[in-house]
Design a protein that fits this description.
There is one protein chain. The chain contains seven helices and eight strands. The protein is of the alpha+beta class and about 375 residues long. The strands form two sheets. It has a six-stranded antiparallel sheet with strand order 3-2-1-6-5-4, with helices on both faces. Strands 7-8 form a two-stranded antiparallel ribbon. β5 and β6 form a beta hairpin. It is elongated, with a radius of gyration of 49 Å. It starts with 6 loop residues before the first helix and ends with a strand.
Length: about 375
Amino acid sequence: MRDRLGPAGLSALAVVVGWTGVYFAFQSHWLGIILPLATTALTWLAVRRGDKMGRRRSAELRTALEAAGARNRELERLRHLAATLLGGTDIPKLVEEVASAAADLLEAESSAVTLLTEEGRFLRLAGATGPLAPSVQALIPVDQSLVGWVVMNDAPLVSSDLAADRRDYEIPGNPVPLSTGAVVPLRSAGVVIGTVSVYNRRDGRPFGDHDLRLLQILGDQVVVGLDRAAVLAESRRNERALSAKNIELQRATRLKSEFLANMSHELRTPLNAIIGFSTILHQSTREMIPTRLHRFVDNIRTAGAHLLDLINDILDLAKIEAGKLQLHADTFDIRETVATVERVMKGIAAETNVSIMTTVDPAIGPLYLDEGR
């Protein structure tokens, strides 16, 4: 019915009435005067309704364009914030960016991001804009504040009169009173870790459900950015700690190598003298002393040479670490090696009345190895 009585319907009716009036005018009927007047009235009404409808549609279009513009602005601000959160690693700067984004998105005079302290009794004002900016790092009691109520109840809220709200906590030294506010919780792994809040809308309008939803979307992005920044910060701390440990290990390795080199040098000096004198005794007293004593001198010379090889092996530890150890393989009879060890050890064993016996499987043939090692 409304469509038929719109501008188009009224215009069609005016045409019908007008032509009817023309007909009666040719008949010299009194309707030939009334109907043209009715046509004029219908035409005027159609024009008025068309103008009114045009203004209404223009207003609706303007409202739709403003809403679309606001939505685009919100999406662009959220996109910029997401890029900042994903690209940033400095938690204080990220918190400041979040507070600025919250104030811009909800057209608020002030905004704040609070984070729970380790003990859980206070919320620390980690970042803020507007009148709350000078109070950054202030502590807010959880059990006596609006943001604390949001944390304890894990629920968002809107307050249209903060002065009358008993849950509100006035930060000492805040120069501008806060009249209205909206607060949402920040959750990480399902646990509330803080809040995001805005105060005093610039145009004076109260905050609503749409503002809470927008603020919650912002809060969800905040947690992702803060978690990522915390992980990166922890990774950097671990890298620095690992680097310090590597430097300490390198220093310890260098000191160990220096110690081994010095000790091996100090041990070689007296040991070379022992080997030298035992070699002279072995060669010059072959016919002068009994065979048994001559064999003892030979054992001293052999044991000294073996000990020198062991000291040289100490230096080989550094070569092993550097990948520069060289093996000198050759064919030898394992029986001779076992007999050499037996001769060296018999002198030591005799002092404690220990007897040494060795057996070698006759099936073992010549070996191709580094005999000393």
